[in-house]
């Protein structure tokens, strides 16, 4: 007879990307964005999705109306609101009414813990605040599952522990099923979080409630603080995807889910599901929020499993798992070997391997020298792998250009009043074999016109170029200290529906940098087909 | 008689931005960059500055030659290298020779802890590796202070604790003054770091050595892990400014210094100096590394003390300190009140206050409506405060344009072979009062030409515009999912030597977006002078 394993403690994940996350600088979601994100969160099995603050704006009201049409599986949508106003019955309070009108299976009520905030911000007495918490909770608990978020709990507890516990007891008496301790200012340390979580549980020992933790990252400790609270007995973690949120952000649920699932064998998250869609979810939220990816983000960043140092890359080829804290496939990410002047021969060889060139030492030296020369101009081949493929072909004499640029020119200027567009036109002259092609195209802006003109001029010779479309276009000022005269690095991501590829161009002129990246994109597609 | 306070334990800060940091994706430092950063690190009082790996490249050799000419105060420059090769005497090993040739007051030697890596990567026996550590250390300790970095210490200890301790003992017998435990793969949890740090100290109790900690952020726990090791007895923390480094980066020394100094009263860092230059140091390193600032970076990010939510801003005006975990001035940062559709009236009022408009409710409504309208087009006024100033003036009828745009046009194209420039020309027609001004300018790229042309055309009417220069130019594709036809947001930072200001322009055409931001920059300057 074998001993049965200790059962894992389930930890609920509560996502507030759509409410607290939208407080982040530069973040604003449309209604459709919010619906799309909510559905994705349900798909990966997140238990609670906070959709918004229905009292605060019409967009959130519309969200709660529309989300009811979607199948959210076991995921509970939550509406967020504050305790009732000081001198008003709960049933008359506009915030309470808005919460009930949202018709969600769950409501999240936030209330004040910190005595100073009660008297100075709310202008209420300490007892009035307890009534506001208890009565608001009792009113809402008749309609839905109730989560109570104790704002400033850790600061409030340090200031007046007795009163802080009283606020939690008022919420529990009101019918809250969950008491969530918020480190609203993000200033606490893990040992403080653990100690105060334990104190809160002791103070509520006579109630049948569960505890949650809500951390902000102001001390760069949000993940550690949340895990410390879980180890002290919390069974719900509130946060946002990618840690977006006000100031330094909320805790990143990506890191919470991955750490709890992959590193803490005592706990279970997302019902034990696979995490292979975490990377995709992270990037989907960045794209929807129009935020740049955080390349070095733990677990899901593009660089999270990228290896650059020559010594490491050499060893990784021998024993990958001992150079990576987890298998990147577990979270849907992948290993990348980067090209760089620091990387030395073993990196170049790892990439050149697929070209069957790795045994040619002389060629490897030439490639390395070319990489260094271009890096000094501002090139970075790390995400421009198609341009790097072409570089290897060029250096090894295997590059056969499919066309020759004779000239290109763009004209652009102010808004054409009649058509209400700021005009941009490109004129392109190319040579394919002995044939000259001359064409022109209009576009939204000069780069769009160049792209259209280049492919239009080549369509006669290479009709398959109509399959290409640009999916991303990035501009980086390489030396931003010297203003508009600085070097410009353009990265383009293209797709033909089957594959996506990245190319790069660098120049002191954005038009020329864009042209180089566009030409590489087209050449990559044509070489790919010639090889296939 | 009062009890004297417990003396604080000094914690040494060891910076490896110039070596481990330069392994980060997208990071490459020139020799001059490295010298500039090293001098800054010495200025703020960092004890150890690792300059590079002299065996690996010529740039690092040159760094050690040149840094000797600078006054580094009490800061010790360190050269980094690996243990000697397997079958070679330390004094004959090229790496050892390169370290001695660097003539630094301190050398950092890295060696293998993990038995698997010894046999599979080094292809040495376990005893050979101990000899390599001990003999390399003994050789170097004759020349300089010796720090021993135990690579993969935590993974190695978990695999074979006895052998891991033996490697540290070999280094201590070799004369290492510091034994630094490295979580090379970044996969450990704080409780593991604390426990293994204590085990290492116990295993070396008979040696007079100090311990250090070197963490990577792969689990988003690098700060917590480093602090846990300090609480377990480590007295040196290795990391990089802004946490730059391979994969997810090294631990961010900014957060380490701020947390130890401001939140952990038992410890002293940087000899107790003020931290008011931390924010400037962080930004200096980003600029030098040509990396984008991490806006939500704890302590020093632009958003770290930025308040957007209307409820918060209302309360912050009452009691700032209870909404911020530290006073931003302590780390040289500042509070910012953001303009946003979410922020509501109290944010707009806080900013409009300086215009003495806050009492005009009707006007406040109009400003808010205009902000929402423009935000829907892709504007963000958060860092474009000069454009927001002009917006308030426009809505309140106080904006008097200093000129009228009649037309602008740019022509740009391929490289002029004769002069080796990709040409760009701007033609500008403006009206000032009743006078028409028509001018043209060349530039490096279309935006540079537009900027030159605009100011050239206005110089006759407003000679003071010659004081302006652009210090930064940023392009953001607002909806990157649709390629080059997406909306383009241009942010420009301008200066007249006395003040710097940010302006913004949005359009589907980069030329038009740039024009709008340039026009706002010039109008802001002219309005400022008219008011002054």
From TrEMBL, chains A, B:
<dbReference type="InterPro" id="IPR036230">
    <property type="entry name" value="LeuA_allosteric_dom_sf"/>
</dbReference>
<keyword id="KW-0028">Amino-acid biosynthesis</keyword>
<dbReference type="GO" id="GO:0009098">
    <property type="term" value="P:L-leucine biosynthetic process"/>
</dbReference>
<keyword id="KW-0100">Branched-chain amino acid biosynthesis</keyword>
<dbReference type="GO" id="GO:0043714">
    <property type="term" value="F:(R)-citramalate synthase activity"/>
</dbReference>
<dbReference type="InterPro" id="IPR005675">
    <property type="entry name" value="Citramal_synthase"/>
</dbReference>
<dbReference type="InterPro" id="IPR013709">
    <property type="entry name" value="2-isopropylmalate_synth_dimer"/>
</dbReference>
<dbReference type="Pfam" id="PF22617">
    <property type="entry name" value="HCS_D2"/>
</dbReference>
<dbReference type="InterPro" id="IPR000891">
    <property type="entry name" value="PYR_CT"/>
</dbReference>
<dbReference type="Pfam" id="PF00682">
    <property type="entry name" value="HMGL-like"/>
</dbReference>
<dbReference type="GO" id="GO:0003852">
    <property type="term" value="F:2-isopropylmalate synthase activity"/>
</dbReference>
<comment type="similarity">
    <text>Belongs to the alpha-IPM synthase/homocitrate synthase family.</text>
</comment>
<dbReference type="InterPro" id="IPR054691">
    <property type="entry name" value="LeuA/HCS_post-cat"/>
</dbReference>
<dbReference type="Pfam" id="PF08502">
    <property type="entry name" value="LeuA_dimer"/>
</dbReference>
<dbReference type="InterPro" id="IPR013785">
    <property type="entry name" value="Aldolase_TIM"/>
</dbReference>
<dbReference type="InterPro" id="IPR002034">
    <property type="entry name" value="AIPM/Hcit_synth_CS"/>
</dbReference>
<keyword id="KW-0412">Isoleucine biosynthesis</keyword>
<dbReference type="GO" id="GO:0009097">
    <property type="term" value="P:isoleucine biosynthetic process"/>
</dbReference>
<protein>
    <recommendedName>
        <fullName>Citramalate synthase</fullName>
        <ecNumber>2.3.3.21</ecNumber>
    </recommendedName>
</protein>
<keyword id="KW-0808">Transferase</keyword>
<keyword id="KW-0012">Acyltransferase</keyword>
<feature type="domain" description="Pyruvate carboxyltransferase">
    <location>
        <begin position="11"/>
        <end position="279"/>
    </location>
</feature>
<comment type="pathway">
    <text>Amino-acid biosynthesis; L-isoleucine biosynthesis; 2-oxobutanoate from pyruvate: step 1/3.</text>
</comment>
């Amino acid at each position: 007879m074998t001993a049965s394993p200790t059962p894992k403690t389930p930890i609920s994940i509560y996502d507030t990307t759509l409410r607290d996350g939208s407080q982040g600088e530069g973040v604003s979601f449309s209604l459709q964005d919010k619906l799309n994100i909510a559905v994705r969160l349900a798909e990966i099995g997140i238990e609670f999705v906070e959709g918004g603050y229905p009292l605060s704006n019409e967009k959130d009201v519309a969200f709660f109306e529309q989300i009811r049409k979607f199948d959210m599986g076991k995921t509970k949508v939550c509406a967020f609101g504050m305790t009732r106003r000081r001198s008003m019955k709960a049933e008359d309070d506009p915030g309470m009414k808005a919460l009930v009108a949202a018709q969600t299976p769950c409501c999240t009520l936030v209330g004040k813990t910190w005595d100073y905030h009660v008297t100075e911000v709310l202008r209420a007495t300490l007892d009035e605040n307890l009534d506001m918490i208890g009565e608001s909770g009792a009113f809402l608990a008749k309609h839905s599952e109730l989560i109570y978020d104790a704002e400033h709990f850790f600061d409030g507890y340090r200031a007046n522990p007795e009163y802080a516990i009283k606020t939690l007891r008022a919420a529990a008496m009101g019918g809250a099923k969950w008491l969530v301790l918020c480190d609203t200012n993000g200033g606490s340390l893990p040992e403080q979080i653990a100690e105060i979580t334990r104190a809160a549980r002791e103070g509520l020992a006579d109630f049948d409630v569960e505890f949650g933790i809500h951390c902000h990252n102001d001390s760069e400790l949000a993940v550690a603080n949340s895990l410390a609270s879980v180890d002290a007995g919390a069974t719900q973690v509130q946060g946002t995807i990618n840690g977006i949120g006000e100031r330094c952000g909320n805790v990143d649920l990506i890191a919470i889910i991955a750490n709890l699932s992959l590193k803490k064998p005592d706990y279970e998250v997302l019902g034990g599901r696979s995490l292979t869609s975490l990377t995709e979810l992270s990037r989907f939220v960045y794209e929807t929020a129009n935020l740049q990816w955080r390349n070095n983000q733990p677990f899901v960043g593009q660089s999270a499993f990228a290896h650059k140092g020559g010594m490491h890359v050499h060893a990784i080829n021998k024993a990958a798992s001992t150079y990576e804290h987890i298998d990147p496939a577990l979270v849907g990410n992948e290993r990348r070997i980067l090209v760089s002047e620091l990387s030395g021969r073993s990196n170049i060889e790892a990439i050149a391997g697929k070209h069957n060139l790795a045994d040619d030492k002389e060629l490897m030296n030439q490639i390395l020298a070319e990489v260094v020369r271009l890096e000094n101009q501002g090139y970075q081949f790390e995400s421009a792998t198609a341009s790097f493929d072409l570089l290897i072909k060029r250096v090894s004499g295997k590059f056969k250009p499919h066309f020759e640029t004779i000239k290109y020119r763009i004209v652009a200027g102010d808004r054409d009043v009649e058509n209400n567009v700021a005009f941009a036109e490109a004129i392109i002259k190319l040579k394919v074999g002995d044939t000259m092609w001359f064409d022109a195209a209009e576009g939204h802006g000069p780069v769009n016109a160049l792209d259209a003109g280049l492919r239009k001029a080549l369509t006669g010779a290479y009709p398959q170029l109509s399959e290409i479309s640009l999916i991303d276009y990035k501009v980086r000022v390489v030396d931003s200290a010297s203003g508009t005269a600085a070097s410009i690095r353009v990265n383009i991501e293209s797709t033909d529906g089957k594959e996506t590829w990245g190319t790069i161009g660098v120049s002191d002129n954005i038009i020329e940098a864009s042209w180089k990246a566009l030409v590489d994109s087209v050449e990559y597609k044509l070489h790919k087909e010639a090889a296939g």
